[in-house]
Amino acid sequence: MASVAEVKAAIDAAMLHVQEGQDAVRSANDRLGEAQLSLATAVEGSGHEAVTAAQAALAQAASELEECLTATLHAVEQAESYVATL
Amino acid sequence: MSLVQDLADQLRVAREELPLPQVSAAAERLRSATGLLAWVLHHSATPVSVPDLSRAVERLDHAAAALRVAQDRLDEYALALGMPVDTHARHHEGWQSAVPAQAPRGEASGSADCRLADWWGERIAALTGEEFSASTLVGDRADAAQSSAELLRRCVQAAHDGDRRRLHRHLAAAGPAVGLGLAAIAPPLLRQLAADLVGYPPRLEDLARVRRAALPLPAELLPALPAEAAAEIVARVCHTTPQRTADRAPTHPVDAATAAALLVAALLRANGRSPDELNQIIEAERAAAGAAQQRAAERAEAHRAALRITDSGRRRSAVDELGRVTQPTRRRSGG
After folding, report:
1. Contact state of A24 with B22 under an 8 Å Cβ cutoff
2. Which of B125, B169, B127, B131 is nearest to B255 (CA)?
3. Would you tell me which of B60, B83, B143, B157 could form a disulfide with B78, CB atoms 3.0–4.6 Å apart?
């Protein structure tokens, strides 16, 4: 059976990965914002269906990243509460 | 440069700025964390309280899919402008290089990450009797199996060759996220292989025969692997309850994953099949699972159809329908 110290160490390590994941998500979000800006500048005035679809997909991606970040923050809170009970 | 060329260039820049590598890196980190939390879950007295990352991983998958859709639409637009799109090169350029490098495990002594590597790698080393070496591990990680199915294939090959060292390197390099998945993907294959062995889905009466065919290989190849780990899996395959004394600790998750892979190798050999046939068996198992799902969906649909007879809304619709049918008749008789 795992000791409390082992479980805590595993959760600490997991949360370290989660924090790195959060950093990557934030970095992705920043880069996505730049890509949206570049695209908006490039295709200004275009009514092409593919352009509209691309912009909608990017907005969707931004929204998903935001929700992912929220979910990871919730997981970190859960982890803190769980460790406090050990 | 023409205006169209200039626009195509700007599109290319926007496309290259899409953060797929970062999303991929985030997904990799969350997968590693999920592997660890699975272990915690296994040892937890209150599994409900253990953090859950499934929603975050799902959102990342959706984000990656949306980014790929955006790439495809930008390619479509570039083609509409008459600019060629080198999709193959674009899909791969910078993908691997842009992924932030994972910190080598086992080097930063005292860090939490080191404890993670130690936990997985040391248990594998204890089971295989091989030496745990952080430097070898870093080298092996470059060629590590990226999925549990691939890891299973490599482990089965190593087990058939009787190569304990190769088995150790494959398992240690794969890490907990991929390695723990062995315990999840192996049981359906074991059931199928056991059915091939006895000629029908294995039952309690077949337990002794399946044990005779499956248990010697794990015991012979990895003497340090607790015998209960493999015995429990075989018992479940034959739909019996594993015998367990109250004072015995639960099976270590690494033991269960390793035993599952070796049992697949053992039953493959018992059926006279080679490791190369594993992919074929996995495909057959998936097809069978898909067909079973389809049959279940059809049964559920049939049940729903039967239930509709007693549904009050359905009865009202039938009455309305009846009214519509009888109305013209009344008009005709009135006229």
Report:
1. yes
2. B127
3. B83
Mean pLDDT of the B232-236 span: 88
Pick from B18, B53, B55: which is nearest to A35 by CB?
A: B18
- Residues B93-122: what's their mean pLDDT? 47
What count of other Cβ atoms lies within 10 Å of the Cβ of residue B321?
10
DSSP for B189-244?
A: HHHHHHHHHHSSS--GGGHHHHHHHHSHHHHHH-TTS-HHHHHHHHHHHTT-PPP-
Q: B314: number of CA atoms within 13 Å, CB side?
A: 8
Name the region of B272 (left: φ>0; alpha: ψ -120 to 50; beta: rest). left
Closest Cβ opposite residue A38 in set B17, B40, B56: B17
Instruction: Specify burial of residue A1 (Cβ count, 10 A radius: 0-12, 13-18, 19+).
Output: exposed
Q: Using CA atoms, how far apart are residues B335 and B330, in angstroms rounded to an integer?
A: 9
Q: How far apart are CA A68 and CA A27, in angstroms?
A: 13
**CA B245 to centroid of chain Cα atoms:** 31
Query: Is any Cβ of chain A less than 8 angstroms from the Cβ of B52?
Result: yes
Using CA atoms, how far apart are residues B166 and B225, in angstroms rounded to an integer? Answer: 16
Tell which residue, B62, B55, B12, B21, has the closest CA to residue A61.
Answer: B62
CA distance B31 to B53: 9
The one-letter amino acid at B27: A
Q: pLDDT per residue over B172-216, tens digit each?
A: 888 877 888 788 788 888 988 999 999 988 888 889 999 999 999
Its sign, for the CA torsion B274, B277, B281, B282, is: positive
Is A48 within 8 Å of B77 when comparing Cβ atoms? yes
